[in-house]
């Protein structure tokens, strides 16, 4: 049953694996484009770091954090880690395009807040995420 499959795909641990996977990221992007508002919201929660992290994800973030500048608050590490990922950065861009306006605003705020340290803009994949966030920020004046 499709609903059952989607509920498994939208579990945080599964989403993390799919977002950073060469082929799995397309599955998540497809749900963002064609899924229900509730399904898009589940993905946004993971992108924004609003869910509990399991130890494996914590370890992956710690590895990514070694490449991040000191002083980056822990709650921004998830956004930065996703933006720096070749595949997850595509998911982030889709999330900024297809999630609710409130979720778009929150993602944009976090991306631009992380980018205040300028390391995302200088990274190969983070620069695309930052560029998309800046375009969206123009639609939300005074908020990012």
Automatic annotation (TrEMBL):
Alphabetical list of PROSITE patterns matching this protein: PUM
Organism whose genome encodes this protein: Alexandrium andersonii
Cited SUPFAM superfamilies: ARM repeat
Ranges of the Pumilio repeats in the UniProt entry: 7-45
This protein's UniProt keywords: Repeat
Origin superkingdom: Eukaryota
GO annotation (BP), single: post-transcriptional regulation of gene expression
PANTHER family tied to this protein: MATERNAL PROTEIN PUMILIO (PTHR12537:SF12), RNA BINDING PROTEIN PUMILIO-RELATED (PTHR12537)
A GO CC annotation given for this chain: cytoplasm
Protein's recorded name: PUM-HD domain-containing protein
GO molecular function: mRNA binding
């Amino acid at each position: 049953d499709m609903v059952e499959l989607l509920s498994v795909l939208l579990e945080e641990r599964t989403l993390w694996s799919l977002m950073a996977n060469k082929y799995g990221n397309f599955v998540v992007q497809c749900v963002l484009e064609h899924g229900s508002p509730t399904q898009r919201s589940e993905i946004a929660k993971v992108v924004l770091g609003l869910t509990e992290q399991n130890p494996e994800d914590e370890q992956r973030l710690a590895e990514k954090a070694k490449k991040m500048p000191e002083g980056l608050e822990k709650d921004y590490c998830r956004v930065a880690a996703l933006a720096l990922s070749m595949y997850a950065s595509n998911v982030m861009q889709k999330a900024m395009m297809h999630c609710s306006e409130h979720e778009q605003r929150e993602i944009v705020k976090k991306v631009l807040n992380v980018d205040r340290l300028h390391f995302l803009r200088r990274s190969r994949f983070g620069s695309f995420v930052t560029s998309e966030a800046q375009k969206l920020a123009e639609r939300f004046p005074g908020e990012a």
